[in-house]
Structure formats: structure tokens, C-alpha cells
């Protein structure tokens, strides 16, 4: 059920994106002849008065089709309501409407979560939690015996209390003491144990032990019935996610070799959403908002086969005073589409191989 919920969230976000393009065209009386969710062979379709609606075999996105270059279209080539015959601004509105729809929908999801489920707050508990430990030979934490889900209660005789500063105190102590043995008090389920860890000197001249750290505690929510407060808090959450997403993409672009491994495909996203749904279905609102904003940022990038790539063609047309030759545009877009589909297939295979259940099969 949790997997189906995660898939449903992704499906809704794709529909929202394509509806943005579709509605922007229809509201301007621009002809639209296809509305498809997915790519490849048609699974189901319905022919409306003007538009064919279809579900296709590969749910890696969707598209809105226009009759401009459809050889079977009976609409005259000089029809003013063909997309290519419209002014640049009209076409830019249609091309950017999917991104705008995803951003608006993300904000709507965050406001809905605040209004129905409540405002998020964190109830701190003593210590700092270790969700993951690097298992490589170079991991000081693994050699010391620290395990995933341990809670570090104290370090170097400093108690890590139930507050926000606990994690920064622990990180600072580790970083400031490379090659010096630190005593740690660990809570492991119902047992308290004492370990000694020696942080290693990293490339940045700071100590490290090879663990992920998060604050210990749980998220609690307080529902609000004040509409204006919900709108305000939703806007704050929206702004935070947008800023973090843009920073993440900038890091990916500026330091691709170091961050490329963090790219996630549809399988990894569904797996993440399924885990979130298992823990707390209400968090799917924020998960949906996060993915919707990521879709918006990805699509606005000036890459072939994405909305941003087509907008880049419009910018070039505006500068030149005429569009690039149609053959050049088609070749660029087709090449971009092949590369994106190839990347999508690669990520699906890699992420499927990394699923817990699949890994366990090959490790037997």
C-alpha cells in the first residue's frame, strides 16, 4: 500500500505539470491535440472533440502535443491558433506553465499539511542519533563499535542534552580533536555502553569518524484552524524547500564528480516515498511538495527536451528576430530526449539494484 501511495504521488505531480501546459494553451485558445501521461506504447486513450487523452507504457513523465507539425492534422499551417504562429510571450507562457503549476501545487500541499495535520515542531530527547555508519575500513566509528541507530549521550565528558545544540556540540568536538581518543556514552536500545573513538584527520584538517548524525527526538504537529496562519507557515516552508533545492542543484552542477552519485531516479523516489508512508502517511504532503519543487527546478534548466531547453530556443529567437531552423531544433530535442531517457533507464536499474530486498537476494 505504501508503494502504491508513493507511485500515486508521483503520478499526480506529472499530471499537474502537464495540466499546467494544457490549461495555459487552452486558455489562450491554442490548439492542443494530445495529452499523454507517460511515453511509449499507448495503454489507454480517449479521443475528445479536439484532444486525444492517453496513458502510455513508460511512466517517466508525460507530454502535451500540438498539431503544428502533425502531418495528419487538418488545421491550416497559417492558423493563428497554432502554437508556432503565436507571439513569443504566448508560447513562453505555455512552456513555463508546467513549472509554475508544480510550484503552486507544492505550496498548496504544504498549506494543506499545516491546516489538516498541523505545524511541525521537534520534541528533542537527550543525545544525538546515528542513523548510519560508514562500514569501510577507514571508518573510525565502525572500528570503535558504533552501530546504526545508536544514540550518543555524551562525548569527552560533555553531556549531549535534549536540545538543538547537542548535534553541533558533538560535531565540533569530533572536528576539533583529530587523532585524539574521545570517550562516548552510547544508548543502544535498553543498554548503555561506553566506547572510545579516535577521529581521523580529514582532507579539510578536521576530525571525522564516518557517521551520519541527526537530532534525537520526534516530530510532533499541532493543527491550526487559522487560514492566514496556515498560508503564512506554508509560504515559509515553501521558501525553505526552494532555497535548499536550488542550492542542491547548484552543488550538483558546480561539483558534478562529487555529487553525481546522489542523483535519484523514479525507483529511489518511490522507495523513499514508500518508507515515508510507512512511518507517517501525513508526511506524504511534504514529500509531494519536495518532489514537485524538484520537478519544477529540473524542468526549468536550459537542457534539450526539457521546458527550459524550449524556452532557451525562444530566447534565441527573440535575439535573432527569427527562430532557429526547425531541423536544428528537432535534432537537438531528439538527442536530448534520448539522453534523458537513457539516464532515466540507468537510474532505474541502479536504484532497483540498491533496493534492500534486491541486495539481500544477491547477498545470499
Question: What would you call the shape?
Answer: elongated
In terms of DSSP E residues, the strand content is 15-25%
According to DSSP, the number of beta strands is 10
Overall mean pLDDT stands at 83
Tell me the count of domains: 2
Number of helices: 11
- Name the poorly predicted regions: 356-364
What profile does the largest beta sheet have?
6 strands, antiparallel
Structural class: alpha+beta
List the secondary-structure elements in sequence, H or E: HEEHEHEEHEEEEEHHHHHHH
Helical proportion, percent range: 40-55%
Rg over C-alpha atoms, rounded to the nearest angstrom: 25 Å
Termini separation comes to 27 Å
Main location: membrane
Subcellular location: Membrane
Enzyme class: hydrolase
Membrane topology: Multi-pass membrane protein
Task: Describe the 3D structure.
The chain has 364 residues and is α+β, with helices and mostly antiparallel strands. The chain has two domains: 95-118 and 225-359, no CATH class; 121-222, PDZ domain (Pdz3 Domain), CATH 2.30.42. Helices cover 50% and strands 22% of the residues. It is built from eleven helices and ten strands. Strands 3, 4, 5, 6, 7 and 10 form a six-stranded antiparallel sheet that branches. The chain has a two-stranded antiparallel ribbon with strand order 1-2. It is elongated and about 80 Å long. The model is unreliable at 356-364 (pLDDT under 50).
Amino acid at each position: 500500500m505504501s508503494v502504491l501511495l508513493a507511485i500515486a504521488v508521483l503520478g499526480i505531480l506529472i499530471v499537474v505539470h502537464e495540466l499546467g501546459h494544457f490549461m495555459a494553451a487552452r486558455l489562450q485558445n491554442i490548439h492542443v491535440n494530445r495529452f499523454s501521461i507517460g511515453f511509449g506504447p499507448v495503454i489507454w486513450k480517449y479521443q475528445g472533440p479536439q484532444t486525444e487523452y492517453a496513458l502510455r507504457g513508460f511512466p517517466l513523465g508525460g507530454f502535451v502535443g500540438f498539431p503544428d507539425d502533425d502531418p495528419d492534422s487538418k488545421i491550416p499551417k497559417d492558423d493563428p491558433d497554432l502554437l508556432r504562429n503565436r507571439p513569443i510571450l504566448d508560447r513562453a507562457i505555455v512552456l513555463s506553465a508546467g513549472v509554475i503549476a508544480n510550484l503552486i501545487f507544492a505550496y498548496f500541499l504544504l498549506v494543506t499539511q499545516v491546516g489538516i495535520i498541523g505545524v511541525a515542531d521537534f520534541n528533542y530527547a537527550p543525545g544525538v542519533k546515528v542513523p548510519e555508519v560508514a562500514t569501510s575500513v577507514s571508518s573510525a566509528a565502525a572500528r570503535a563499535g558504533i552501530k546504526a541507530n545508536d544514540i550518543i549521550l555524551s562525548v569527552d565528558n560533555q553531556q549531549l542534552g535534549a536540545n538543538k545544540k547537542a548535534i553541533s556540540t558533538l560535531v565540533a568536538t569530533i572536528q576539533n580533536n583529530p587523532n585524539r581518543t574521545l570517550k562516548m556514552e552510547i544508548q543502544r536500545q535498553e543498554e548503555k555502553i561506553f566506547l572510545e573513538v579516535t577521529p581521523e584527520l580529514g582532507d579539510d584538517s578536521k576530525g571525522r569518524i564516518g557517521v551520519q548524525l541527526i537530532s534525537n527526538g520526534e516530530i510532533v504537529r499541532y493543527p491550526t484552524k487559522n487560514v492566514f496562519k496556515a498560508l503564512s507557515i506554508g509560504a515559509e516552508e515553501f521558501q525553505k524547500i526552494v532555497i535548499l533545492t536550488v542550492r542542491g542543484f547548484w552543488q550538483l552542477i558546480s561539483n558534478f564528480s562529487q555529487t553525481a552519485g546522489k542523483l535519484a531516479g523514479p525507483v529511489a523516489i518511490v522507495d523513499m516515498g514508500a518508507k515515508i508512508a510507512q512511518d507517517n502517511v501525513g508526511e506524504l504532503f511534504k514529500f509531494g511538495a519536495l518532489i514537485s519543487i524538484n520537478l519544477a527546478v529540473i524542468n526549468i534548466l536550459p537542457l534539450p527536451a526539457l521546458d527550459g531547453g524550449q524556452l532557451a530556443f525562444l530566447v534565441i529567437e527573440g535575439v535573432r528576430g527569427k527562430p532557429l531552423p526547425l531541423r536544428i531544433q528537432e535534432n537537438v530535442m531528439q538527442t536530448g530526449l534520448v539522453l534523458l531517457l537513457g539516464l532515466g533507464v540507468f537510474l532505474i536499474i541502479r536504484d532497483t539494484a540498491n533496493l534492500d530486498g534486491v541486495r539481500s537476494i544477491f547477498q545470499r
